[in-house]
Amino acid sequence: MKLKAKIFLLAIVPFAVAIGGIEYGVRQQATTLAHAQHATLQAAYMSSKEIELRHYVELAQSAVAPYYDALPNDSRSESERQQLALDALHRLDFRPDGYFFVYTMRGKSLMHPRQPDLVGRDLWTMRDPAGALTIQQLIREASRGGGYVRYVWQRPSTGQLAPKLGYVMPLARWGWMIGTGIYLEDVETALARIDDQAAANIDRTVMWIGGIALAALAVIAVCGAVLNISEHRSADAKLKRLARQVVESQEHERARLSRELHDGISQMLVSVKLLLESALARFERSPAREPAAEAALSTGLGRLAGTLREVRRISHALRPAMLDDLGLAAALEQLARELDGQNGIDVRFESTASAKAAALPDPVNTVLFRIAQEALNNIARHANAARATLGIDIAPNAVSLVVSDNGRGFDAHAVLSDPASGLGLRNMRERLDALGGTLAIHSELGRTVIAATVPLPLARPICKDCPMISDPARIVLVDDHPLVRDGLRARLEAVPHLRVTGEAGNGTEALALAADEANRPDLVLMDVGMAGMSGIELAAHFHERFPAIRVLMLSMHDNIEYVTQAVRAGASGYVLKDSPAAEIIHAIDAVLAGKTFFSAGLAARMIQARAMQTPVERLTPRERDVLDALARGLSSKQIAQQHGLSVRTVETHRLNLKRKLSIDGQAELIKFAVENRRG
């Protein structure tokens, strides 16, 4: 077992055992307290019920006292007074199931308000379901002077047998027993409810302890994971730094050898060549010709010229001087010319450079040149291709290198996963990692594309269309996950030239923020999948209502269809949420500068998808509507009235049409619109 695992177990196991002991002790103590509470409450309930019953019987006694304790001169007979007493008791009741009953001391029922069918019957031998003689128990307690009796009797309100607490007292002179009772179901229900509450409180307490324990375990686990990750990151950073130093030292050594070959050996060989040519010229001008010597010198000069070419080739392969003198584009163009025609491959070079782009740093030049070298060499050795294209796009915020061919393709995942192969591709990725760049590989039969992108955070252009440090670009975040918005805000607020001015959890809130002209954002960073209005629908609304606001999609979906639909809706870029924060910032900068930006994993597929589209298919639905309106000869004002837009918005759409269709004048745009009119 590893040391880290042992330390983790030593931290977790004692903690778990301690929490388990605490939980067991708390449950036992809480259960004991609940039982004690039950007993105390039961005693208190029964005591209050007994006092209540005694008061009821005393009330009944006072009700019959005028008849039972009548004066000797009372004109009423004994039987009349007894009947009046029974009537008075019959009228006394409390609650639905509270009443008084009267029996003779021999068990005959004299009065029962709730069960009149029992009146007049001899119930001396009546037994309850348990076999107890109910009436005899009551009479026995009355014979002792009165007291409390627990028995089972039918409850009038339900018709069911129920436990009952009764209190009886004798009227000895008449030979009667009077009494009343309270059914104990209510008491038992109340006690059961209290027991349930106590049990629920115990369970809740135990759950809290368990929850706290789980939270503590989670904190321990997270801390351990963070420590482990930080150590891995530190080790990974050290390895990358070491690898970068090794690569840099290799490049320095290559440059030194290249200079030595160029400035030393090449110059000496040129000097020797000149001397030999001079000697040969003298032989040729000499009256006494030496054909054999002249032939030997000519052969030597030919071989020396070949040697010079080989030295130049080796020097260029080690470190082309053009890379340092004229830059990356010139060096790549020279590389393409050198390899053009070799192994029957037609190599073409394409270059796109923004006028606002800054000069590339030396590390970027070196890394991209080596990647181009490796990719073209792989094409020559393995691809069996007839054509290859080497393209470089130098933008203000990033530089992209794309190498493609029409060869047989390969399984990129399998090659990168096999330790015995894919060394060149892994070297490309490691070189780019050192610069914070990304490598995208897409390969299939007949087409392979390798796209390398390096961000240029220090090459921000200074122009009126680009956000300035002194005037930060206004950003609005649109995502239905508050945690994602919080994380994005925290990261973007650390960038001096960006300022988050608002957040929205749905499309309606985002449109409301954009409608505020005083705080209108320069860019909206929005999710694709949101409840209600989707990000793609929202992007279309922004493109139609606020065309000056740039839209950058941020999503977990890497399906190319999402990307295509987002671009058609008017988005200027598409970045995956799992991209590094630096790439998201570079994407924002690129879109703010008027460029498009796609995550490296999507770039190659977008290149392929866009290559298959016609210029008209790349237009958004609103731009297509404007194009059709132009074909019908409508003016900007008429188009605005027809589609409910402002004239300024229509003019913006016209500018976008000319830019996307590579058209300069209005007449050419209208001609194109007529030729491509729908319907």
Descriptive account of the structure:
It is built from 20 helices and 17 strands. With 679 residues, it is α/β, with parallel strands linked by helices. A hairpin with a 2-residue loop joins strand 10 and strand 11. The longest helix has 101 residues, at 185-285. The protein starts with a helix and ends with a helix. The model is unreliable at 458-470 (pLDDT under 50).
Major beta sheet summary: 6 strands, antiparallel
Continuous helix count: 20
Overall form: elongated
Oligomer: single chain
Helix content: 55-70%
Query: Strand portion, in percent?
Result: 15-25%
What Rg, in angstroms, do the CA atoms define?
A: 49 Å
Average pLDDT, rounded to a whole number, is: 83
Global structural class:
alpha/beta
End-to-end distance, in Å?
A: 74 Å
Tally of DSSP β-strands: 17
Uncertain segments are 458-470
SSE topology sketch:
Blueprint: H1 3-68, H2 78-91, E1 93-94, E2 98-104, E3 109-111, H3 134-143, E4 147-154, E5 161-171, E6 176-183, H4 185-285, H5 291-318, H6 321-325, H7 328-339, E7 346-353, H8 362-383, E8 387-394, E9 398-405, H9 412-417, H10 423-434, E10 438-444, E11 447-455, E12 473-478, H11 482-492, E13 498-504, H12 507-515, E14 523-526, H13 535-545, E15 550-555, H14 560-569, E16 573-576, H15 581-592, E17 597-598, H16 600-611, H17 621-631, H18 636-643, H19 647-661, H20 666-675
Parallel strand pairs: 7-8, 12-13, 12-14, 14-15, 15-16, 16-17
Antiparallel strand pairs: 1-2, 2-3, 2-6, 4-5, 5-6, 8-9, 9-11, 10-11
